[in-house]
Specification:
Structural class: alpha/beta
Bound molecules: shikimate-3-phosphate
CATH topology of the largest domain: UDP-n-acetylglucosamine1-carboxyvinyl-transferase, Chain
Strand order of the largest sheet: 2-15-17-16
Largest sheet: 4 strands, mixed
CATH architecture of the largest domain: Alpha-beta prism
Mean pLDDT: 98
CATH superfamily of the largest domain: Enolpyruvate transferase domain
Low-confidence stretches: none
Number of helices: 14
């Protein structure tokens, strides 16, 4: 699909956000092995989370969707059935990696996990190696580093694992595997990725402790140990970030995003935009779905460059494409470093973001672990590609709201992965 975007005179609106992608995945996966019914509202109906539902159904779990609720009928920790076919995770790294953890401990079960060309190209050694240390038997192409991954469920034991990268998917895969093992799992090292799995497991009654960077999970003895958790999924800050940047860089804008998840492991983009001089107000803070949420309003701002690095990176990793766009519209230089993980996302986002920004007239120098962006206020419309990457598609759409002339986006349908309503919201906030 090709979408053409031009700059509107004004941007105005109140945007209620789709459910958080990470929380939606986890709500289905964890409730699938809980004992009883859970109702999940504001569930993200993007393609990634629908892949999770399809896989969980293929494992024999009853999942129903009606109007605004996803109903999951968990039948306990030992209830999953061997799937009769390969499990297709589509474009979703979270589905593949979390399921790999969950299935590793289903003794005797054989399952194969695969996905689209992008997912099959992404590295899996990061989960395969630590899962093997717990006794898992799994393998894949490229010596176990690429999907399809074949898993023969095994008797898992506990262990201690030091996470070398701040990946919530790796952390969660290990915690899910440990639920089915027979010994305590201790995680140390880079446990600072998003913590939704830990929050949800604790709320469901799992025996888990978090002390500083050390997470311990003691596997439940009874198969009915996990209580189902009904929740309203908070709004996705990674989707909200597109509107925040749009409002900050457009000269006549005020946009409010309501019900945004304000979990500290996810608010790096807000902190960075503030540090760049964005006018941001947070109101109506409350707790929803076990997470802090609030309404975030952003107005036209004079942005300046920033250094984005270190411990901040995992807190904004998915927002870096659109933050790079903000940097291209800011005064002065922005340096992004320590973000080598961008190279193994849905696309190599250092290469794809840098080349798209350059096509828009920005000066960008890609580096091994980030990029250096020289701000300029006059982007010009260009013909851009999503490369099948949802966050690139949305970043280029937002660029089109401030660039001079027309921005023509090829592969606009990629937004389906995480934000199916994106194009209609875009039309709604343009004036
Ligand atoms: C996610 C974790 C992050 C993030 C991805 C979703 C999750 O990936 O980029 O979009 O739901 O756990 P990593 O775990 O690879 O950092």
């Amino acid at each position: 699909m090709i979408y053409t975007i031009t700059a509107p005179r004004r941007l105005r609106g109140v945007v209620s956000l789709p459910g958080d992608k990470s929380i939606s995945h986890r709500a289905v996966l964890l409730n699938a092995v809980a004992s009883g019914h859970a109702g999940i509202t504001n569930f993200l109906t993007g393609a990634d989370c629908l892949s999770t539902i399809a896989c969980v159904r293929a494992l024999g779990v009853r999942v129903e969707r009606n109007e605004d609720t996803v109903h999951v009928y968990g039948a306990g920790l030992r209830s999953l059935c061997e799937p009769v076919d390969v499990l297709d995770c589509g474009n979703s790294g979270t589905t593949l990696r979390l399921l790999a953890g969950m299935l590793a401990g289903q003794e005797g079960m054989f399952a194969v996990l695969t996905g689209d060309a992008s997912l099959r190209s992404r590295p899996q050694q990061r989960i395969v190696a630590p899962l093997r240390t717990l006794g898992a038997s799994l393998d894949g192409r490229d010596r176990g580093n690429r999907a399809p991954l074949a898993i023969r469920g095994a008797h898992l034991h506990g262990g201690i694992y030091e996470l070398p990268i701040a990946s919530a998917q790796v952390k969660s895969a290990l915690l899910l595997a440990a639920l089915f093992g027979d010994g305590t799992l201790t995680l140390t090292g880079r446990t600072d990725g998003r913590d939704h799995t830990e929050r949800m497991l604790a709320a469901m009654g799992a025996m888990m402790t978090v002390e500083g960077p050390t997470i311990r999970l003691i596997p439940p003895e009874r198969p009915d140990a996990l209580q189902p958790l009904s929740l309203r999924v908070p709004g996705d800050p990674s989707s909200a970030a597109f509107w925040w940047v749009a409002a900050a860089i457009h000269p006549n804008a005020e946009v409010t995003t309501t019900g945004v998840c304000l979990n500290r492991t996810r608010t790096g983009a807000l902190d960075t935009l503030r540090a760049m001089g964005a006018q941001i107000e947070v109101a109506n803070q409350r707790i929803e779905g076990g997470e802090p949420v609030g309404d975030v309003t952003v107005r036209s701002s004079r942005l300046h460059g920033a250094v984005i690095e270190g411990a901040l990176i995992p807190r904004l990793i998915d927002e870096l494409p659109v933050l790079a766009l903000a940097a291209a519209c800011a005064e002065g230089e922005t340096t992004i470093r320590d973000a080598q993980e961008l190279r193994v996302k849905e696309t190599d986002r250092i290469a794809t973001v840098a080349s798209g920004l350059m096509a828009l007239g920005a000066t960008v120098e890609p580096t091994d672990d980030g990029m250096i962006i020289s701000g300029c206020s006059n982007l010009r419309g260009a013909t851009l590609e999503s490369h099948g990457d949802h966050r690139l598609a949305m970043t280029w759409a937002i660029a089109g709201l401030v660039a001079k002339g027309e921005t023509v986006l090829h592969g606009a349908e990629a937004v389906e992965v995480s934000y199916p309503e994106f194009w209609s919201v875009l039309e709604q906030v343009r004036e």
